[in-house]
Specification:
The protein is an alpha+beta fold. Helices cover 39% and strands 23% of the residues. It has 14 helices and 16 strands. The chain has helices spanning 3-12, 35-43, 45-62, 75-84, 107-120, 157-172, 209-225, 236-247, 250-265, 294-307, 311-327, 369-385, 424-432, 485-502; strands at residues 16-20, 23-27, 96-103, 126-131, 134-139, 147-151, 184-191, 195-203, 281-293, 331-339, 354-362, 414-420, 447-448, 452-458, 461-467, 471-479. The strands form four sheets. Strands 9, 10, 11, 12, 13, 14, 15 and 16 form an eight-stranded mixed beta sheet that branches. A four-stranded mixed beta sheet has the order 3-8-7-6, sandwiched between helices. Strands 1-2 form a two-stranded antiparallel sheet. The radius of gyration is 24 Å and the shape is globular.
């Protein structure tokens, strides 16, 4: 049994471990800690102490708060720049966060609200210049921000809405260069009946999906109530300075070293047909898209309720078991995209606040779905408690430049990303609307996009599940330099096979 599962099993019985001057202490219900438990703790003392020390370090990082200081690129932005910058930036896709919302207000009122938001957040007004290995940020003045305008009020309402939606999509697909003058842009479409559609687009290096929801909610609040209703959160630069400061402390070093050892201990997954190591690399990336209809999502939600977990965990377990059966490996690592907004003080922080948690998967062939799921939950919870806020492009210990060489290999074979799309307002409106997925088939029709030549590192496998209420849009990505077309086919087949076993029709 791993230390993670040992501690999870003890805590499940109400036995809580802690450290005091290097000694293991515990609190538990009377007689809960047995003699066998005590013997196990003594036998694995060194491992347990290291785990508890690392957990304390991660807790200290979560509580680091913010620190005032000069405008500085965050460590995440420095690592993003090393991944996505350069002459090939924007090829084959623009790495942007699109923020599109429809408002029952005049273009003038919406423009003023957007200007208000841009003025409030330095994170949206920052620009960068690279000088050798140094990334230097500068702040654009708020009054230099320009909003593009397009007047569609002469069109019929349906035609205007369609034109605005298409225009917003095209606008958000433009590349926001990392070293351009503005990394955030906006365009406003004036619609009939005093309505407006606003499209904001920020380079992913300065924003994330959480930023999208915060900004759209604030624009609604400004229009409806005159000001944002949410309490102010720590500013991104303040947060990133505290994070940077912590990572050079002894506790930061403890956290980095823990994840370096964890990474070295993980096995290398190989492609089942040719034995190619599943390493990240540059080259052809294949994308397969499909839609999960609402009736299937409902079955997943029922199953999650039955087991008192979330749909996220159901999908992660399906993906993990499919990988295990496809590769023939019962133990392997995976990255799960997450959010650093884990406290009230950070709940509305605007900026690049996503990260990727490294999780060890154990999926024994003979274990049933729930058993594997409970094991994944224990490992995922442990990863959150030991979180090091790295990006998935790099090995988990590479939280800032200089930890490893720039070309240090990434052997974690897969990334999983699940998120519920939209603000609370948008999800409520979607839920109240008609289910347009009722006629969609299941198993679904899979659409394979033309090959994309990626100049950046690509994960061998990457599963995006975007829950949009009545349906989920799913994208399955393969790096063809590691996963051959026959292996792509066999994995896709295995994924739907496991889905059918776990969530029967």
């Amino acid at each position: 049994m791993s230390v993670v599962k040992l501690i999870a099993e003890l805590e499940g019985r109400g036995i809580l471990l802690s450290l005091a001057n290097g000694d293991i202490r515990y609190r538990s219900p009377k007689a809960a800690l047995t003699g066998a438990d005590k013997e196990g703790l003594r036998a694995r003392r060194a491992e347990i102490v290291e785990y508890l020390e690392t957990r304390n370090a991660a807790k200290a990082l979560r509580g680091a708060g913010g620190r005032k200081g000069p405008l500085t690129a965050s460590v995440a932005q420095e690592m993003w720049w090393r991944f996505a910058g350069g002459a090939e930036e924007g090829k084959p896709i623009a790495l942007n966060i699109g923020m599109v919302g429809k408002f029952r207000s005049s273009p003038q009122a919406v423009s003023a609200a957007i200007q208000d938001v841009i003025s409030r957040y330095d994170a949206l007004r920052v620009r960068f210049e690279g000088q050798g290995e140094t990334l230097t940020p500068f702040l654009n003045p708020a009054d230099s921000f320009e909003i593009e305008q397009e007047d569609l009020r002469a069109l019929a309402p349906d035609a205007a809405n369609k034109a605005a939606a298409k225009g917003a999509q095209q606008f958000c697909a433009r590349v926001n260069l990392i070293e351009g003058q503005w990394l955030t842009r906006a365009k406003l479409f004036a619609l009939p009946a005093r309505e407006s559609l606003a499209a904001l687009s920020s380079a992913h290096m300065i924003a994330d999906a959480g930023t999208r929801n915060i900004i759209l909610d604030e624009i609604h609040d400004i229009l409806d109530h005159g000001a944002p209703r949410a309490a102010p959160s720590t500013l991104y630069n303040d947060y990133s300075l505290a994070e940077r400061e912590f990572l050079v402390t002894s506790q930061g070093a403890q956290l980095i070293e823990h994840w370096r050892r964890w990474y070295r201990d993980q096995p290398m997954m190989k492609a089942p047909s040719d034995g190619a190591p599943l390493l990240w690399g540059n080259g052809i990336r294949m994308v397969r898209n499909f839609t999960i209809p609402g009736r299937v999502l409902d079955r997943v939600r029922v199953l999650a309720d039955q087991w008192k977990v979330t749909p996220f965990l159901i999908y992660l377990t399906i993906f993990s078991i499919a990988m295990a059966r496809w590769s023939g490996m019962e133990r392997f690592p995976i990255r799960v995209l997450g959010d650093k907004r884990t406290s009230l003080e950070l709940s509305n922080t605007v900026g690049l606040m996503f990260c990727a948690d490294a999780v060890e998967i154990n999926a024994p062939t003979q274990a049933d779905f729930e058993t594997v799921m409970r094991g994944i939950l224990a490992e995922y919870d442990a990863s959150l408690s030991l979180r090091i806020p790295t990006l998935h492009f790099w090995a988990p210990q590479c939280v800032r430049p200089g930890i490893e060489a720039r070309d240090y290999p990434n052997k974690i074979p897969a990334v999983f990303n699940y998120y519920s799309v939209g603000t609370a307002r948008e999800r409520a409106e979607k839920k109240a609307g008609r289910d347009t997925s009722a006629s969609l088939p299941w198993p679904p029709e899979v659409v394979t996009l033309p090959p994309q030549s990626w100049p950046r590192r690509s994960s061998p496998l990457f599963l995006h599940v975007m829950d949009m209420g009545h349906e989920a849009a799913v994208s399955l990505h393969f790096y063809q330099g590691a996963v051959s077309p026959p292996d792509q086919d066999s994995f896709t087949h295995q994924l739907f096979k496991i889905f059918a076993e776990a969530v029967p029709a």
